[in-house]
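I need you to check the entry underneath: sequence plus C-alpha cells. Let me know what the C-alpha cell row says about the fold.

>
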Amino acid sequence: MDLLNFVWHYFVVFLIILTVVVFVHELGHYLVARWNGVKVEVFSIGFGPEIFGWVDRAGTRWRISLLPLGGYVRMFGDADETSTRADDRPMSDEEKAVSFRHKRVGQRAAVVFAGPASNFIFAIIGLALMFMIAGQPVAEPVVGEVYKGSAAEDVGLKSGDRIVVINGTAIDRFQDIQRIVRLEIERPLALEVLRGAATLSFTVQPRVIERRNMFGDLEKVPVLGVTADPSSLRIVHHGPGTALLEAVRETETMVTSTFVGIGQMISGTRAADELGGPIRIAKGAGEAAQLGLSSVVFYTILLSLNLGLINLFPIPVLDGGHLVFYAAEALLGRPLGERAQEYGFRIGLFLVLALMVFATRNDIVSLPVWDAVKRLFS
C-alpha cells in the first residue's frame, strides 16, 4: 500500500468516522440545552486552537479545532469546556435565565444524558437504514461444516444438526450461537440439538483460539468449531417497522455483550488486552475502509455505541459522573459540596487517563512493529 492510500485508509477515514460520532454526541447536548433555554457559547469539534469557525444567530460559536480527538459544548454558566467549574461572577436575572448552572437539576441531567442518548439513537437509526437498504444477513441455526479437531467434533456434532437451545436460551439464528459462544466463556455450553426427528443433548467447552477479526485486529476468542449451513443464509430486506425493531434488538445485543465483556475483563475471565485505544480504533477504521462503504457505516455505528456507553460510566468528568452528582443533588435537595465535587473530578480524571494509557499500551503491543522491537532487544 503506498503512502497516499495509507493516509486515506488509516488517518482520513478515522478522522471522518470520529468526527461523525463526536458531532452526534455533542449535538445531543446542544439541542436539549437549547430546548431548555440554555445559551450555548461554543460548539467545538476538536480541542485546542481554533482552525476556523463562525457565529450563528443564537450567539453560538461553531468551531473546528486543531486536535480532532473529541469535542465539547460550552454552555453559558460554565467556566471551562469540561463543565466541572461554574462561572462564579454575579449574574443578572436575564443571564440566570439562560445559564446552565441556574437550570433545575432535572433539566441539567437531561442536557447531560442527551449526548450518550444521541449516540444510541444514531446507532439504531443507522442499523435500521442498513437493514432496509443493504439487508440483514440471517442464517438458520443449522450446522454446515464441523471442523476437524474442534470442540464440536469431539462431542459428536454433525453437519445438518439444528441447535435449538444453548444454556437454556432459545436459538433462532446462527448469529445467536456465535454471540453466546463468545460470551459464555466461564462455563461449558449445554446444547439441545435436533438431528432428524431426534432431540439430542451435548455438553461442550469451546476452545480459545487466536485469530484476526474483520477489522484486522488479533484477538483471542472461544470457538465451537462449526460453520452455518450456506444454503440457509439469506439477506432479509426489512420495511421501516421491522427494520427499527431489528435495529433495537441488535443494539441491545451489542450493549449487553459489551457489559458482559467488561465484567469478564474485571473478573479475569477475559484478557484485558482486548481493550483498545485510539491507535486500534484508527486501524479498525482503515480496515473497514478497505472492506467497503457498508463496513465503514457499521464501524461508525459500533463506535457511536461505544462512545455512548463509555460516557455513561459513573466516573466524574464523564457524562455518567455528572449524572451521579445530579442524582445526589436531587436526593439531598442541594448540590454536593465543592470539595467533594473537586475530589470526585480529580479521581475521575485519573481513572480516565489511566484507562487511556492502558488502552494505548495495548494498541502499541498489538502492532507488528512491537514484535520486531522485542526481537531486537531479546
Remarks:
- The domain at 137-236 is CATH 2.30.42.10 (Pdz3 Domain).
- The chain is about 50% helix and 20% strand.
